[in-house]
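Hi R.,

Here's the chain you asked about this morning:
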Amino acid sequence: MPKNNIKCYIYTRVSTAIQVDGYSLDAQKDKLRKYADYQNMEIAGEYSDEGASGKNIAERPEFMRMMSDIEDSKDGISYVLVFKLSRFGRNAADVLSSLQRMQDHDVNLICVEDGIDSSKDAGKLMISVLSAVAEIERENIRAQTMAGREQKAREGRWNGGFAPYGYKLVDGELQIAEDEVDIIRIIFDQYVNKGKGTIAIARYLNDQGYVKKLRQNNSINGFSEVFVRKVLANPVYAGKIAYGRRRTEKKPGTHNEMHIVAQEEYPVYEGKHEAIISEDVWKMAEERRKKKAAMRAPKTNCRVAIISGILKCPCCGKGMYSNTSKPHSKDNKERHYYYCKNNSNATGHRCEFRQNIENSKLEKEVVYVITNLVKNPVFVDAIKAKIGESIDTTELEKKLKTLEGKLRQAEAIKNRLEKQMDELPYDDAMFERKMSDLQRRYDKQYDTMQEVENDIEEVKMQLMSIRQNQLTEENIYNVLLAFDDLYDTFDPMEKKQFLKSFIERIEIYPQKREDGTYLKKLVFNFPIPSFNGGTGKEISLEYSDTLETVVIMNRKP
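And here is the predicted structure, written out as tokens:
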């Protein structure tokens, strides 16, 4: 039978490669082709999105391409055929907005299975109603899933995610892990009965030879201050089940973007699992935690530690940071010191360096060396020759790219699971079991994403000194040549950024030298004159007795 000159597009969509609703792409296409043939319509184009959620059209490339072709009047079509309205979209605003864009170009929507034709008044009304219903259904499924988790919490049962350290999951229920539980008891005992802080507790565990059992993607078997804090904040150890400590919320100002937000208040229920600590111990720990939190109010007049981060620990090689002592009884003044975080086991890494070095003393040593270097004619000539060369951050950028790839992979898995949850029919006979399994895998991805995000943040901090407010390479060299004139005009934060722009790291001796100095080596981001007449990235004080000797050696005869 000849066609009646009415052209159409057909659009199909499935949320996942493994179907949960029974309508594969091929089944949808077959149905739509038969309908077009029955209506004597000519199919001018076919568009299919596989593995795409219906809640956001921006995540469906084929749908976006179809809309672009319609607005370009590419094939002169009159209709778009879809199997069901839910295949076109589940978000009411997106459905109605897309339909309006189509009708602005005299293109209407036919939902074959639903019997809806938007060219008819009744069809327009049905689309408005059904699209709203589809969105409500999707939100209801999510709400029912979360309500199911909250109900589990009310009943005192574990409601998803990895078992906290000290417990294991057996058939979905928490049971004490005998190879981990002693650590939890020690942490609360040290905190409540011995009065130790979280850093001191982490140090104690590591010094006593305790080893943390590695779980999930964790690769550090030492105990960190962060780990101790998380244990002390978790009511599960007192036999409680908390619900909603973190919630997935819509990002303000966005349509469908979500993010995880820690909650200050959340309900806590009596758990069915065995408690590791008593309720009295938990209450004492909570009271102490709240008092310490109130004491840690941020200071508004915090001193800038000019060489923090680029100053490296002489024992473990990690960055050293600044700490402030209590006001001295003699003059009521605070003292500022550089220290290695790892020596207090705040990160789970061990370090034996116990020195606290006064900030101003080390900073003056660094400035003294650089100021005299830039007065040396050989140094000036070498720097001028290097003007225009870039600072090499290749390795850090490669590491960051790898981590970002891991994060995208975890997010893709999380999004795929989310789509499966969105599309799982509520009337499915196995709905609860399927949803529970999907939710468990979904929660696991958030744990993985958090670990990778922490690694990414660490790498970005290393790059920050180069990328944030970075001078061009040429200006770095030119400004370095004017170091002696400029440095004293900078405020402390500008001094910090300035030094980080051209110094890779500062190394010190583990003990003070005879002349009272600590400085051992400056490593730059670019080649500079060395004492033997060549060039390198380092200025070493290793073979000199005093800083003054270095200055003399570095002067032109």
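One quick note: The chain is about 45% helix and 15% strand.

Cheers,
M.
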